[in-house]
Structures are given as C-alpha cells and as structure tokens.
Write a structure and sequence with these properties.
binds L-homoserine, elongated, alpha/beta, Rossmann fold, Dihydrodipicolinate Reductase, domain 2, eleven-stranded mixed sheet, Alpha-Beta Plaits
C-alpha cells in the first residue's frame, strides 16, 4: 500500500485555500516523485467560519481545537498559514512537542521568534521549513542553502513586499493616490489584513532578517537596522525620480564585509538600467552579489494565493522526499546568534533630498546649512507655489553625515519631505 503523510492545516484564508488546491492538483506528481501521498486531513478554522463547502469538496475535516490536530497520532505535518504571532507561535510549539514536522509561511513569527522555534524543532527531531515566508513564490531560501554552497554571498537586496511595489507601480503608471493604490492592493489580497506592516516597511524588514540568516548565517534583529516604509510617499517624488532616470522601489538590503553586516529597508532610487527597476506590481525580485557567481537575480510573484501555496507545498514535498529516503533531520539553515554590525560612519551612499521651505528666509537658510555641513549637491528641481520645494541629489556621504544634515534642517525648521538613497548599480 502507498505511504501517506497526513497534514493538519492551520488557517483557511487566502494562502490556506491555495494549499488545499495545490496539494489536490499536484498529488499524483508528488506521489510519483516521492512515493508518498500527501493528504490534507484536518483544517483548523475559527468557530463561526463557514468553510463547509470547500471541506466537502476536498474531503477534509474542519476542527476548532488545535489539539484535534497536534494530539492526533495520524497527523504527520502541520502547515501554519494563519499569520501573526499568537496563537500561531503556541500552535507551532505544540506541534513540535507532539513530534509533528512544520511548514510555515509566517515571516513575522520566524523573524522574531525563529531561534525558539528552530531549537524546539531540533529538540524534537522535526523538520521546520518556511520557504514561502520570503518573496512568496520565489524559491529563494532553498536556493541560497543549496546553490551557493561553493560560493560566498556578499550582498542581498531586493523588492520583497508585493503590496508596496504594486502601490508604487500603480501610483506612477495610473496617477493613483497613495490611498487608492493601497485600497486596490488590499482588494487583490496582497496586503496583510492590517497593511501597516506593508506600508511601514516592517514586512520587508522581517524578510530581510530571514534573508540575512540564510545569506550570512548571522542573526539580525529588528532593532539592529533602520526601517522606513512608503507611508504617504508623494507622487511628485516618484515622477521626478523617473525623469532623472530612476524608479522608486522599497528595497530591503543586507550586506556583509570585514566591517560587519549592514541592513536597511527604505524606498530607494533604482537606476532604470538595473534589473530591479523593471519589476512591476506585486512581483518581487531578489538580487544576490556573490564572489563566485557574481550577480544573479531571482524574480517572481511575491504574494498571492497559488504562488505562495505552491512554495508551501514544495516544502511539504521536500519533507516527504527526505522521509522516503530515511534521511536524518537537519535544520533549514544554520545561523549563529551573534551579529557583527557595521557602524554608520562606515556606510555611505548618494541621496535624493527633497526640502520644503515656508519662505525666502528658509531658502537662504538651506543654502547656509548646505555650506556649513559641507554637503555638495546638485539642484534638480526648484519651484514655488505657496511654499518652496527644492530637490537635490547629494554627493556620496556617510550615513552619519546624512543624519547630521537632517538634524540641521530640522533645527532650522526646514521640512525634509523626502530623503532616499540612490541604489548603486
Ligand atoms: N503582504 C505581503 C506582501 C504578503 O505584500 O508582500 C506576502 O508576504
């Protein structure tokens, strides 16, 4: 008789529904490659959630108590696609403590509580895979594990939040407001239920934390790096950047050198010739610089039901394959807890700087501050409506100097309406 692995699925939202469909559609292929049939046996939903139609169609049992899954000796693997921290964290720990393997797409949880989850998985000899937690459908984590073994990654950066990339594309191409483009991203199911984490760069930062573990084997913490999103970004800045030969993209970046790791999340000006500049809408792209391969880019859907679910089901298939081959359980990646961080005076870049001055006096003050801080700039726009708008591109400066300049403008009550780094090609 064919061997079966029974799955308990936690959550039946956008991704959970996709997992049901992808398992059903690929069941025969998975059986022929692994010799194992994957079967979603039970699905945990909230009391009052009406999921009877899909449960009848695909033949699984709906349950409301996590213990109906974790205490069921027939369940082999738990798939967590509920999102957020609790109760997902307790449910996953419960699953490991009951010797169930776990697949999760939960970047919030893995970025913040990865160490506890990974060590509990190891103590219980369980697999813990989470490919779908970064860049949805792009198989980036396993690629870093398997295909860079003979290489050394020095830098990983890219577009890892589908919602904000969709918004930036729609604002520019269809002249939509920030609010309208966000509403559309929510309607299309890309955004989180509360889109704060998307627009404030936090979702991208969670993914940067996970990418850093895989790229550099170091454990970046959320408090270790600067995180800025696109909240309230002005269409005028997107349009001016385009005229200057750039696309504005929310970039998550992590790089490693002898001086340590530097990471940040921020909207940046990406030169139009760079492959990341052409990534539109909810698509994601991860660009890797490494000593051996040089430059490589991985591109695909970063959000959405079926792409994300396909990544989850691929993790399930890898577990099935390893079980079939009676392989020893090993962690997805090994990373040490200590991180060596770069100092702000060791990191430098060029910046797009947009200022708002209330009156002529403030315009003069801007010139004084630029002289006093010895900041060489190129003026790329100056206009006056009720107030004055001045936009500059700076020379290469350290982050320490950037912060000093911002402080000087603040002190003079000149509003810095936007400051974005120009990504090096
Ligand atoms: N809200 C996330 C995004 C979903 O827009 O990228 C995928 O992680």
């Amino acid at each position: 008789m064919e061997k079966r692995l029974k799955i308990g699925l936690l959550g039946l939202g956008v991704v959970g529904t996709g997992v049901i469909k992808v398992v059903a559609q690929n069941s025969a292929k998975i059986l022929s490659t692994t010799g194992i049939k994957l079967e979603v046996a039970k699905v945990l939903v909230r009391v009052g959630e009406d999921k009877k139609t899909i449960a009848d169609e695909y033949g699984f049992t709906l349950v409301h108590d996590i213990n109906d899954i974790t205490s069921d000796p027939e369940i082999d693997i738990v798939v967590e696609v509920m999102g957020k921290i609790e109760p997902a964290k307790s449910f996953i720990l419960n699953a490991f403590n009951n010797k169930k393997h776990v697949v999760s797409a939960n970047k919030d949880l893995i970025a913040q509580y990865g160490n506890e989850l990974v060590s509990t998985a190891q103590q219980n000899d369980c697999y813990f895979y989470y490919e779908a937690s970064v860049a949805g459908g792009i198989p980036i984590l396993r690629t870093m594990v398997n295909s860079f073994l003979a290489d050394e990654i020095t830098e990983v950066f890219g577009i890892v939040n589908g919602t904000t990339n969709y918004m930036l594309t729609q604002m520019l191409e269809n002249h939509l407001s920030y609010e309208t483009s966000l509403k559309q991203a929510q309607e299309l199911g890309f955004a989180e239920s509360d889109p704060t984490n998307d627009v404030d760069g936090i979702d991208a930062a969670y993914k940067a934390v996970i990418l850093t573990r895989f790229a550099f084997k170091q454990d970046l913490k959320m408090q270790d790096f600067s995180i800025k999103g696109i909240r309230g970004i002005d269409l005028a800045d997107l349009e001016l950047a385009q005229q200057l030969g750039y696309e504005v993209k929310l970039i998550a970046q992590t790089k490693n050198s002898n001086n340590g790791v530097y990471a940040d999340v921020a909207p940046k000006l990406v030169p139009k010739f760079h492959p990341l500049a052409s990534i539109r809408n909810e698509l994601n792209g991860v660009f890797i610089k490494s000593l051996g391969i040089g430059e490589s880019m991985f591109y695909g859907p970063g959000a959405g039901s079926i792409p994300t679910a396909t990544s989850v089901v691929n993790d399930l298939t890898v577990i099935a394959q390893r079980i079939a081959e009676k392989r020893q359980v090993t962690p997805f990646t090994n990373y040490q807890e200590q991180i060596k961080l770069q100092k702000a005076n060791a990191v430098s870049g060029r910046f797009y700087l947009a200022l708002k001055a209330e009156n002529e006096e403030q315009v003069t003050k801007i010139a004084t501050i630029l002289a006093e801080t010895d900041l060489a700039v190129e003026l790329v726009e100056q206009n006056q409506t009720e107030t004055f708008r001045l936009v500059y591109l700076t020379q290469k400066i350290t982050l320490e100097k950037r912060d000093k300049v911002i402080k000087a403008f603040r002190k003079a009550e000149v509003e810095v309406t936007q400051m974005m780094e120009i990504l090096e090609g």
